[in-house]
């Protein structure tokens, strides 16, 4: 039986990059058989740019404001990902929806991590939504990306108990700790052949 090729990962990030860092640590420690190829960031102030540079990962800034429309912005990201021979795109705190131009270029190979147990609480401020609704269990989800906001097929989930007196910040911190573990585990389960 031939040896399976490593997953060649490209990250899309907008902020701190902590989920990207968690995946990079799993790769570096040999617990995830993958290769990080590039990080694309849409925010020049994002800490993720420095994080990538500090780890020797090429980081490319692609700002939407530099393109006439969404399609051109997405096509620019696709060009970068293809230049780095990316086979799996991981949205790790990327704060934009991706559309048809992007998804068709990486059909079935775009995943996202979201801080709720989807299909509950899609979109922004999922942890606040969970607290506002009084749920007792929150969590995070890794899912395939489609054109619906946080609407793709679920790959993996992790539950987090909502504690009495939780704030958005305290619940978010516990969910983030689970995200850091779940994302690499989910990537490991994907069969991209």
Descriptive labels:
193 residues, alpha/beta, Rossmann fold, seven-stranded mixed beta sheet, 6 helices, globular
Tell me what the structure shows.
This protein has 193 residues and is an alpha/beta fold. Helix content is 36%, strand content 22%. The chain contains six helices and seven strands. The chain has helices at 18-28, 47-54, 70-83, 100-105, 126-133, 168-189; strands spanning 7-13, 34-41, 59-61, 88-91, 110-114, 137-144, 154-161. The protein has a seven-stranded mixed β-sheet, with helices on both faces. α1 (18-28) crosses α6. The radius of gyration is 16 Å and the shape is globular. The mean pLDDT is 94.
Q: Helical stretch count?
A: 6
Could you describe the largest sheet, including whether it forms a barrel? 7 strands, mixed
How confident is the prediction overall: mean pLDDT?
A: 94
Order of helices and strands: EHEHEHEHEHEEH
- The domain tally reads 1
Beta-strand residue percentage = 15-25%
